[in-house]
Design brief:
By secondary structure, this protein is an alpha/beta fold. The chain folds into two domains: 140 residues, Periplasmic binding protein-like II (D-Maltodextrin-Binding Protein, domain 2), CATH 3.40.190.10; 138 residues, Periplasmic binding protein-like II (D-Maltodextrin-Binding Protein, domain 2), CATH 3.40.190.10. Helix content is 36%, strand content 21%.
């Protein structure tokens, strides 16, 4: 690399400052819902794979509401979306878990802004088995015995189950550690203990359900909105011997189902402009109707205070 003298650096300083300013302006425009070169406003949304279906459905429908706004949606996991938000790289992070204190601190350190949370709906984390599995219900303790590091259950026969045309060994299907679903399951079921090694860790919610549907001796967990005809959602009991509840909208709203959870979106500071209006639409009756149609549980009261007239 050629040596650049002090005088040359001084002479180049105005140019370098101008370049940096231009870069900063470009980054800001791309990350804060500002207008791009096509005349459209871009809002970047990233995060939860549990929410990616509804996030894409919202984005598609919003084209009809605000044709001048384009919503770019990507997944990767709640942790991935939150990390991008803490860097100021996106406008909205979707998450199936709440932000951790250290993530909030990092966002404030990096951007000078406090993250703002909005609960946009609810989801039941369903426990899936193959449709031919005779098991109908399971307790949180049994789930822990299957998935937890020192859990003793490794075979279906230990649960009194015989898998038709399948192997007795339980194939555990899980999510990658950056997933909010992984974090929620670890906290709600394993009580923050470690997972047993040897599970098949999938990148997305849809992939979990698809693999369970193709593997007769498997068990997995994913949002109830991903159910299909190849799998069965088990009823879940808080403890052995207690009544088990299926993952339904009503049971999620009443908190009867023990693996119900909230769905969040996060912004840096209070949203404004196009981002504020978009979040207001998500919380409106129209946005909540789409949430319900995608298999999730809407909020009990749509909050329209964010809508800009």
């Amino acid at each position: 690399m050629p040596y650049i003298g002090r005088k040359a650096l001084v002479a180049l300083r105005p140019i370098l400052l101008a370049v940096c300013a231009a870069c900063a302006l470009f980054i800001q425009c791309g990350r804060s819902g500002k207008e791009n070169g096509t005349g459209k406003t871009i809002i970047q949304v990233k995060g939860s794979d549990t929410m990616v279906n509804v996030a894409q459905a919202w984005a598609e429908e919003y084209k009809n509401v605000e044709p001048s706004v384009e919503i770019e949606v990507s997944g990767g996991g709640s942790g991935v979306g939150i990390a991008a938000l803490t860097r100021g790289a996106i406008d909205i992070a979707t998450a199936s878990r709440t932000m951790k204190p250290d993530e909030r601190e990092q966002a404030k350190k990096n951007t000078g802004k406090e993250p703002t949370e909005y609960i946009v709906g609810y989801d039941a984390l369903a426990v899936y088995v193959h449709k031919d599995n005779p098991l109908q219900e399971i307790s949180l303790q049994q789930l822990s015995d299957i998935y937890e590091e020192t859990g003793p259950v490794t075979k279906w026969s230990q649960l009194g189950v015989v898998i038709p045309v399948g192997k007795d060994k339980i194939i555990r299907i899980s999510r990658q550690s950056s997933s909010g679903t992984y974090e929620f399951f670890r906290e709600a079921v394993l009580k923050k203990r470690d997972f047993k090694l040897g599970s098949l860790d999938m990148n997305g919610s849809k992939e979990v359900v698809e693999l369970v549907g193709n593997t007769k001796s498997s068990i997995g967990y994913s949002g109830m909105g991903y159910a299909n005809s190849t799998v069965k959602m088990l009823k879940v009991a808080v403890a052995p011997g207690l009544p088990a509840s299926p993952p339904t909208v009503e049971n999620t709203q009443s908190k009867t189902y023990p693996l119900a959870r909230s769905l969040q979106i996060y912004t840096l500071g209070e949203p404004s402009g196009a981002v504020k209006k978009y979040i207001g639409w998500i919380m409106s009756d129209a946005g909540q109707k789409i949430l319900r149609e995608c298999g999730y549980v809407p909020t009990l009261r749509a909050d329209s205070t964010l809508v800009i007239q």
